[in-house]
Amino acid sequence: MEAASISHGHPADRHEHHGPPPANRSSRVEPQFLGMLLFIISEIMVFGAFFTAYFFIRVVAENPWPAEGTELPKLIAGVNTAILVSSSFTMHWALEAAKAGNRRGLQAGITTTFLLGLTFLFIQINEYVHVGFSPADHAQGSIFYGLTGLHGAHVAIGLTLLAFTTIRAFRGHFTPAEHRGVEVPGIYWHFVDVMWVIVFLTIYIL
Amino acid sequence: MINPLRSEAEAFRLLLYVLVAAAAVAAVVLVARAIL
User: How far does the CA of residue A183 sit from the closest CA of chain B (Å)?
Assistant: First the structure.
């Protein structure tokens, strides 16, 4: 501890920096954005593994889709898709409001996004209750619950991020100059929506 | 679009592109199924 009190060099060389030195940055991308980008890339690989299983069951093994005697609720899933896609529009609106310094717009946009995401998740859980088969019944059931459940887990993670963003928006943490706390969850939320569009297309439509 | 996840605006644009592509694929497949 004694060493810490010893000053080094000329007094003019001293600076007022406290704490650890700034982390080295090897990328032009800001650390928060880089972290989210790497996370999303890893998530794409996870989804890729599930889609591989889906196409193996359906194309390579030539199993019927959906399994014989089962039916997927396309209409409800379509409405749910519209709900989730509309939440991306409100997310975009929220960030644009933050950039413009429109605090009420940000609060309304982010709250609406959260509620739409929550509605999507409730409808999906309701679908599981009424769909009429379980993951243990057949391979098609396993991959249906696997893919939609994996996506549902991502919606839940996104809702957690949005919950923090919503609280921070109501506490006035965001300004036109500093709004990374809205933008980074926004990138993740759009990624979740992109994945759902692909899941909906392959599972319900094709 | 070098990196579609560089910003929220780029990610939102990617979503719109994916929506259009998904609608096109769905339309082609459904029409092909109806014809064949």
Answer: 6
Q: What's the number of CA atoms in the CB half-sphere (13 Å) around residue A127?
A: 22
For A61-106, the pLDDT digits (tens) are: 888 988 888 999 999 999 999 999 999 999 999 999 999 999 999 9
Question: Chain B residues with CB inside 8 Å of A85's CB?
Answer: 15, 19
Mean pLDDT of A114-120: 97
Tokens of B36: 């064949």
Judged by CB atoms closer than 8 Å, whether chains meet at B15 and A88 is answered as yes
Contact residues, chain A, for B22 at CB < 8 Å: 197-198, 200-201
The predicted pLDDT at position B2 comes to 65
- Of residues A91, A187, A205, nearest to B5 (C-beta): A187
CA dist A169 and A189 (Å) reads: 17
Q: Which residues contact A56 (CB under 8 A, 6 or more apart)?
A: none
What's the rounded Cα separation, in Å, for the pair A102 and B17? Answer: 28
Residue B30's closest chain A neighbor by CA? A206
- Residue carrying the six token digits 């003019």: A12
ipTM summary value: 0.91
Q: Output the six-digit token pair for A134.
A: 């379980």
Beta carbons of B18 and A197 less than 8 angstroms apart: yes
Measured distance CA(A141)–CA(A70) in Å, rounded: 9
Q: Give the pLDDT confidence of A136-182 residue by residue, as tens digits.
A: 999 999 999 999 999 999 999 999 999 999 999 999 999 999 999 99
Q: Are B7 and A99 in contact (CB under 8 A)?
A: no
Rounded to an integer, what distance in angstroms lies between the CA atom of residue A149 and that of residue A201? Answer: 16
